[in-house]
Each structure stands twice: as structure tokens, then as C-alpha cells.
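Reminder to self: C-alpha cells first, then the designed residues, so the page reads top to bottom the way the pipeline ran.
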């Protein structure tokens, strides 16, 4: 509260308050006196008139009664009167009077006050023949009105007094506040650094002292300001000299900073370019090794080729790490937002790392907790890269025990969830010092690890940067000799309300679990119980209902002959099918008899594979609950569309897809595929990417724009050249998956199973695949690649020799057109046209068993993509020569060709 306000309250408020209290007390006292006088007057009048009224009432003197009652009604504020007997019955009434209860004391006078209405009851003298009462009705409203008039008068008087006091207080405050305000304004100007005018000295001694002090302060500040100005000028001169020196140093630092940034940019570009330049020929070396592996080699040559293949794989992994690290450092890694399923992603990673775990006899297990939502969105490629690196490291540094991947829900919001993914092992562990430098580039836990285990020390650094770029954190916990646990958080788009539905409904089927590895046993028991099964152990299986299925795990130590003999006896005694989960690779799975049915699966078993196996083995085939990729009913025909501008590729895909319930339609161009899409619907499309006219991506976008069912139809890219970034381009173009050439029947069958729920039967090799014409050209040396290798062609065609011969015939017939297209493109310096021609020739050679021509075609296409036309021209004569050799081989084998054509016609008519 300000001083002015306090003074105003003291001068104005306090006197007004005192006056109001005095006036209020006087008015209240006056009102009480008026009421007391009225009571006395009424009581005295009633006491005087009561004897006369009693006598008049006793003598029945009406005139006297009227005269006496008129006198009472003439009293102030009396409105009515009544004479009543002892029972309260009225004897005489003048005016309207309220009824009252009888008197409590017959000999006493009583005055009842109720608000503004008073009632006076007085007994009449005893001389009357019967007891009687006088009742007066009195209205005190005039007294209240008189009191209000006095209050109004007092209020006006107080208001006038308040106005006079306000004028007096205002005049007093003005004399006091004006010097204070002048002093305040002077101090404000001093605070702003402005010297004010000197203050006038007021007559009051207190205010005069204040004015003198403010003037002295202004003089002192003026002097200090002049001194400071002089010091500032001196310091400015000195600072100017220093700034000139600093400016020169800043220019030199800026040049050095720019040189450092440029050097860092050049280093990153150099790493990226060198990695790409190394990877391009390295891919060619890997491809050539694969082609060599398809030809006939001596055991010693095969061993050398395996060594080369492993060295190339290690070098390719190193180059990929360097390339990823350089991209992360340069900030050129872009994250995708795609639908993903953590169960399928973890199963895929464990499936890729399973051979190393099986080789070392380690238990590899994936646990995705039930609270992890099914529908999530993120970057599956980068998550898979991080998880693969962590699992591979865990397996690499663990000699015995287990490696477990856990995925659990850590935090959930409206549209985002945070998962915690951990990879724990029972390996060698590490010290705290090694753990602190673990996520630094080119650092490993021990200096001997690169020599003993390989690697560059970039994997964990890449994982850390990828996890941080996705918005998470990664850390490690480890004890020397006890093992390590690497965990990272993973923010993803999704809702925790979308819980994963059970894959099966087993409806109380009794399943016996015999698994020696405790975590795997608990995981299987929980999963089967979630599917609705009654899970028991061998110890308690005999006390309840008969088991419908036995799920048993075999470790690495169970694969010796003695223990396998025990398992054979055990399987003979079972009365139900058995699922054997063996920690071994497919070639090493034991050939155990299953007299009551069952399967042998290799660990780790994916959830989908386990569900399918349980469904196949249980009697009655319990119905599966809805899952994201439901099985297609076998009675419904599946319509497939193959789009490729190379006839041999279309023929191969059609043959590989041939089967009951499958209808394959071929399209030679994107335009033809689009025309077919307008007329009918298809369940899946296999789309070549590089085609003349509309390419695969453009055709896919046009199909998606048709709307309706075409927005959901799986479209699979079929191509031979796909790098990491091209996967993202294909997915953005609307393609759902990629099938790499040369086509592998197993991969094609897996795509059909993933997208359509169709299980293809394993391909059967045709009889007599090796009993036909010789595979090497006569006179050819063993060290050279064969012109034609029919055995290789049959393998590439999924074991179908007839198909391989048809593809070879088609290739030979198209050589003239391909050669002319290549020559025309070279003559026009048309790199795009040359790439189309080489791509078509390379695709046609991949399945025909022509190693020499196929190697040259792939080499030329790779060189043209990476180094341009000038790098291709020197090898064109070798390509033309290989074409001529293939045509010469055809001319030298007329009987084989005729036989092949006849066989093809016969097979086609039979079908």
C-alpha cells in the first residue's frame, strides 16, 4: 500500500468511520427510546381504562363501551381492539385482530412483540360476571419509518462531512506529494543516465533535506559520468587495437575451419565413393564366384573357390560398414516409415544367424512379449541392421550357453510406443573400461579381437548412430566371464491397444513339452498356453488325458548315435505325433523315424513355422484365428500375373509357378499388364523392373492408381540389381517385396507363402537330367567356362531339364536380335539402349546354363552401370564371340535340339 493511500485513509477514512459509529449509536439509542415510550404509554392507558371497561361490560353499557374503546383506538399506532372471555370467544371487536392463545397468567398484563406487530393483552377487573380480556393490536411501522428518515438524514450529513474531509486530505497530500514526485522523477532520470534539473527546496524541513540530497547525488553522478567517459575513451582505443588483432585471427580461423569442413566432406565423399567403387567390382567377383561354383570343379578348386567366397564376403561386409559409417557421419541416411511386425522381424534375424549358433551349439531364442502391439510403423531395414549386428556379436563372442533376444513394451502413448529390445548372452563379457569405449568407431573390447574374431569396430558405432537417429538410446551391461546384455529403446508409431491376436486356437488340446533348455521351455509353454493348449510335462503326462502332440527339444549333445538310438525307442512308444526341435542346421538334422507322425525342425523355430507345424500335426486341424496374412482356401483359384519383356524369364516364372490351383498370365510389357488389369483382377504380380516403355516402377504406380483391390494386391519386383537405397525407391513406388535374379524356387515359394498363404510343393528334378548331351563343347579345356552346361541349366530351372532346354532354345533364337540391338546402341552412343539390350541378354542367360555368355553379359551390364560406355566397348568382341560359339553349339547339336523341342511339345500336350 502506497504512502498516499495510507495518508488518505488516515485523514479521510478514520474520521468518517468514527462519525458513522457515533451517528449509528445515537440513532439506535433514539429508536429504543421511542419503542420504550410507546410501550409505557400503551401499558398505562390499558391499566387506566381496564376497570371502566370491566364495569361497562358487567352492566352491558354499550355507550360506555363505545366511548372507552374509541378512546383506546385513538391511542398512537393502535389498529384494532377486542374484548374476549376466558375461553377466547370475542365479546366485542373493533377492527380486525389476529387470534391469540389464551393468557397463561390470568391476572397479568402481557405485551407480545412480533416484528412490527404488537399485541397487548390486559385482564379486566374481577367485578365482571365472568373473566374477560382486553386485546389491543398495535402497528409499529411508523416508528420504523421514523427511524429510516433519521438514518437518511444522518447519511447525508456523513456524506457532506466526507466531502469536506476529502477536500482537506487532497490539499494536504498535494503539498506533501509534489516534492516527492519531483524527487522520484529526478531519480528516474538519474537511473537512465540523464542529469536532471536541480530540485526546488520546499519549506518543510524534512522535504528540504530530501531535495538537497537528490541534488548532491545528481552532482556526484555528473562528475562520475565525466570520469567514466574519459576511461571509456581510453579503453576504446586499446580495444580497437585488440579487435584489429582478433579480426585477423578470426579470418585465419575461418579459413582453417572451412578447410577442415572441406577436408571432412572430401573424406566422407572419398569413403563413400571408394566404398562404392570397391563394392562394384567386388559384386562382380562374387557373381563370378557363384558362376564358377555352378560349373564342374575339382575338389581342390572347389576349396579354393570357397576361400575366395569367404574372403569376398568379409571384404564386402567391411566395405558396407565403412559406407554406412560415412553416410551416418555425413547425415545422408534417411529413415523410412513402413509397417513392420516385431515377431516376424526378430524371427527373420534369428533365422539368418541360426547357422553360426548351430555350429557352436548355442541356444538362440527370441522372446517378443505379448504386450508388444502387432501393427507398428518404423524403419524395418535399419532395425534389422541393428538387431543383426548385436545378435551376430553375441554369437561371435559366446562359446557356450545361450543368446536371447527380448522385445518388450516400455512406454505407450496415444499414437506412439517405445519398445525395449535387449540381446543377452553368456559369453566372455568385458571390463568396465572396455564397455565405456565400446561404441566408439574402430574400437573393440580387446586389441586381440580383430585378429581372433574379425571385424572393424564399426558395427556398434553404426548401431549407436542408427538408434539415436531413430530417437532411442543404446547401452551395454557386462560382467567379465559372465556375459553381456546390449539393449536399446525404439520409438515407433502405433497404439498399445492393438494387441496381437493368437495365431491359433487349440481348444484345450493336451501338448507335452520336453525341452532341456529352461528359457525355451518357458517360452514354448507360454506360447502354447496362449494358443489355448493344456501344457504338461513328461512327469505329469500319464495322470491326465492322452496327449495330442509332443514337442521335444534336442540339443547339440543329443546328436550322437547312442542318444539318437534312445530317441528312436522313445518315438516308437509315443501314441501321438511329435515335433522335434533340433539345434542343428538342415543338412545335419537327424533322420529319426516318426511312426505316429510329426516333423523335425531346426532351432530357432519362428512362431509362424511352429504354428504351421502344430496345425499340420494335430488331428482335426483346429481353426486358425485371424492373423495378418491368413491362409487362402485351397478351393479358391489363385491368379498370378508375370510381367517381363524377356520371353525366357516369363517362361521360367510360369514354369516355377505351375501347380494345382494356380493360374499364370503373362504380359510382355507394362502397357500390356495395365490393359489386363482393366479387364480382370489378380492376386499377385511379379514385375520386372527394367523394361522398354513403361518400366516396372511406372507400371506399378499405374496399377495402384486403378484403386479398388489393386491398392492391396502384392506386387513383387523381379530384378538383378538392387542396392540398399534402391529397396526404399521400390517400396516408395508401390512394390511390396523384391525377388533377386537368378530366381531361387525356395525364395519364390516363401514369397507365395508370406503374401498369399500358399505352400508350394518342393520341386522334383526330372529323371535323366544328366543322361543327355555332353555339357562341354568338344575340344574345350577344363579350365575354361563351358559354352553350355545343361546340368547347371536344370538346377537354375528348379530341377526341370525340359524347361532348361526350352529356355536355351529361346535364348539361341534371340541372339541375332540381341546382337543387332547391341551394335545399334554402340553405334549411336546410346547408353540407355545398350543397358536395355545387355539387361535383357543377362536376364535370358541366367537360367539357360550358358556360363560363358552369362558371365560376359553380367560383366558388361555391371561395367556399364558403374563406369559407362567406354568401359564396355573393349569387351564387346568377346561377347560377340560367345554368341557365335553358342550358335555354333546349337548347329552342332541338331538331334538334341529336336529332342528338346519334341519333349517340350509332348509335355505341353500332356499338361
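Designed residues (911 positions):
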Amino acid at each position: 500500500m502506497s504512502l498516499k493511500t495510507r495518508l488518505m485513509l488516515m485523514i479521510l477514512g478514520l474520521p468518517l468511520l468514527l462519525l458513522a459509529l457515533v451517528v449509528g449509536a445515537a440513532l439506535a439509542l433514539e429508536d429504543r427510546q421511542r419503542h420504550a415510550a410507546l410501550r409505557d404509554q400503551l401499558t398505562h392507558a390499558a391499566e387506566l381504562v381496564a376497570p371502566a371497561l370491566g364495569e361497562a361490560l358487567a352492566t352491558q353499557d354499550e355507550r360506555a363501551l363505545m366511548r372507552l374503546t374509541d378512546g383506546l383506538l385513538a391511542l398512537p399506532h393502535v389498529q384494532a381492539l377486542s374484548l374476549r372471555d376466558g375461553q377466547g370467544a370475542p365479546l366485542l371487536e373493533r377492527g380486525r385482530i389476529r387470534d391469540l392463545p389464551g393468557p397463561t397468567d390470568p391476572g397479568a398484563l402481557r405485551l407480545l412483540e412480533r416484528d412490527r406487530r404488537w399485541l397487548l393483552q390486559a385482564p379486566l377487573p374481577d367485578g365482571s360476571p365472568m373473566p374477560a380480556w382486553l386485546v389491543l393490536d398495535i402497528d409499529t411501522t411508523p416508528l420504523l419509518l421514523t427511524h429510516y428518515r433519521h438514518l437518511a438524514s444522518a447519511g447525508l450529513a456523513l456524506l457532506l462531512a466526507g466531502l469536506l474531509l476529502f477536500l482537506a486530505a487532497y490539499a494536504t497530500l498535494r503539498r506533501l506529494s509534489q516534492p516527492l514526485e519531483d524527487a522520484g522523477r529526478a531519480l528516474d532520470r538519474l537511473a537512465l543516465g540523464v542529469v536532471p534539473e536541480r530540485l526546488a527546496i520546499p519549506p518543510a524541513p524534512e522535504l528540504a533535506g530530501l531535495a538537497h540530497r537528490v541534488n548532491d547525488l545528481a552532482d556526484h553522478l555528473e562528475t562520475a559520468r565525466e570520469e567514466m567517459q574519459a576511461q571509456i575513451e581510453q579503453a576504446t582505443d586499446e580495444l580497437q587495437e585488440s579487435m584489429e588483432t582478433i579480426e585477423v585471427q578470426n579470418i585465419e580461423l575461418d579459413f582453417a575451419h572451412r578447410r577442415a569442413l572441406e577436408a571432412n566432406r572430401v573424406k566422407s565423399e572419398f569413403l563413400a565413393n571408394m566404398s562404392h567403387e570397391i563394392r562394384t567390382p567386388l559384386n562382380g567377383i562374387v557373381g563370378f564366384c557363384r558362376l564358377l561354383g555352378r560349373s564342374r570343379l575339382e575338389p581342390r578348386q572347389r576349396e579354393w573357390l570357397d576361400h575366395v567366397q569367404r574372403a569376398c564376403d568379409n571384404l564386402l561386409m567391411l566395405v558396407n560398414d565403412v559406407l554406412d559409417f560415412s553416410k551416418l557421419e555425413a547425415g545422408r541416411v534417411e529413415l523410412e516409415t513402413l509397417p513392420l511386425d516385431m515377431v516376424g522381424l526378430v524371427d527373420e534375424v534369428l533365422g539368418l544367424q541360426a547357422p553360426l549358433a548351430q555350429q557352436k551349439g548355442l541356444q538362440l531364442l527370441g522372446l517378443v512379449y505379448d504386450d508388444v502391439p502387432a501393427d507398428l510403423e518404423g524403419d524395418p531395414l535399419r532395425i534389422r541392421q541393428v538387431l543383426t549386428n548385436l545378435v551376430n556379436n553375441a554369437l561371435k563372442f559366446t562359446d557356450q550357453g545361450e543368446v536371447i533376444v527380448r522385445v518388450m513394451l516400455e512406454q505407450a502413448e496415444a499414437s506412439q510406443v517405445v519398445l525395449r529390445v535387449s540381446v543377452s548372452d553368456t559369453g566372455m563379457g568385458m571390463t568396465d573400461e572396455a564397455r565405456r569405449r565400446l561404441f566408439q568407431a574402430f574400437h573393440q573390447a580387446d586389441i586381440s579381437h580383430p585378429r581372433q574374431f574379425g571385424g572393424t569396430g564399426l558395427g556398434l558405432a553404426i548401431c549407436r548412430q542408427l538408434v539415436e537417429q531413430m530417437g532411442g538410446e543404446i547401452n551395454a551391461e557386462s560382467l567379465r566371464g559372465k556375459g553381456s546384455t546390449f539393449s536399446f529403446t525404439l520409438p515407433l508409431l502405433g497404439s498399445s491397444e492393438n494387441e496381437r491376436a493368437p495365431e491359433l486356437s487349440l481348444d484345450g488340446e493336451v501338448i507335452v513339452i520336453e525341452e532341456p533348455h529352461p528359457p525355451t521351455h518357458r517360452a514354448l509353454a507360454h506360447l502354447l498356453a496362449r494358443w489355448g493348449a493344456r501344457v504338461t510335462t513328461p512327469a505329469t503326462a500319464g495322470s491326465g488325458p492322452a496327449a495330442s502332440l509332443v514337442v521335444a527339444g534336442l540339443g547339440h549333445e543329443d546328436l550322437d548315435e547312442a542318444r539318437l538310438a534312445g530317441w528312436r525307442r522313445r518315438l516308437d512308444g509315443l501314441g501321438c505325433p511329435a515335433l522335434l526341435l533340433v539345434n542343428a542346421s538342415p543338412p545335419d538334422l537327424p533322420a529319426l523315424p516318426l511312426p505316429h507322425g510329426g516333423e523335425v525342425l531346426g532351432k530357432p523355430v519362428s512362431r509362424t513355422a511352429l504354428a504351421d507345424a502344430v496345425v499340420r500335426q494335430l488331428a482335426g486341424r483346429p481353426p486358425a484365428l485371424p492373423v495378418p496374412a491368413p491362409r487362402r482356401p485351397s478351393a479358391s483359384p489363385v491368379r498370378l500375373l508375370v510381367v517381363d519383356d524377356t520371353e525366357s524369364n516369363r517362361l521360367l516364372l510360369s514354369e516355377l509357378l505351375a501347380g494345382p490351383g494356380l493360374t499364370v498370365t503373362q504380359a510382355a510389357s507394362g502397357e500390356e499388364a495395365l490393359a489386363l488389369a482393366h479387364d480382370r483382377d489378380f492376386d499377385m504380380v511379379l514385375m520386372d523392373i527394367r523394361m522398354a516403355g513403361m518400366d516396372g516402377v511406372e507400371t506399378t504406380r499405374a496399377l495402384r492408381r486403378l484403386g479398388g483391390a489393386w491398392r492391396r494386391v502384392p506386387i513383387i519386383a523381379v530384378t538383378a540389381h538392387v542396392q540398399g537405397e534402391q529397396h526404399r525407391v521400390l517400396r516408395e513406388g508401390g512394390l511390396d517385396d523384391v525377388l533377386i535374379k537368378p530366381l531361387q524356387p525356395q525364395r519364390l515359394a516363401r514369397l507365395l507363402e508370406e503374401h498369399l498363404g500358399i505352400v508350394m510343393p518342393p520341386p522334383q528334378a526330372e529323371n535323366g537330367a544328366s543322361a543327355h548331351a555332353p555339357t562341354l563343347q568338344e575340344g574345350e579345356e577344363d579350365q575354361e567356362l563351358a559354352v553350355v552346361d545343361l546340368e547347371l541349366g536344370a538346377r537354375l530351372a528348379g530341377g526341370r531339364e525340359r524347361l532348361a532346354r526350352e529356355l536355351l532354345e529361346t535364348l539361341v533364337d534371340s541372339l541375332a536380335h540381341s546382337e543387332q540391338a547391341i551394335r545399334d546402341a554402340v553405334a549411336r552412343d546410346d547408353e540407355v539402349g545398350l543397358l536395355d539390350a545387355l539387361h535383357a541378354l543377362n536376364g535370358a542367360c541366367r537360367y539357360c546354363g550358358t556360363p560363358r555368355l552369362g558371365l560376359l553379359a553380367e560383366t558388361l551390364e555391371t561395367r556399364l552401370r558403374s563406369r559407362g560406355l567406354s568401359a564396355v566397348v573393349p569387351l564387346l568382341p568377346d561377347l560377340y564371340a560367345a554368341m557365335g560359339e553358342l550358335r555354333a553349339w546349337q548347329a552342332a547339336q541338331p538331334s538334341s535340339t529336336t529332342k528338346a523341342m519334341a519333349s517340350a511339345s509332348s509335355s505341353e500336350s500332356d499338361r
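Confidence is low (pLDDT under 50) at residues 448-454, 620-635, 764-783, 895-911.
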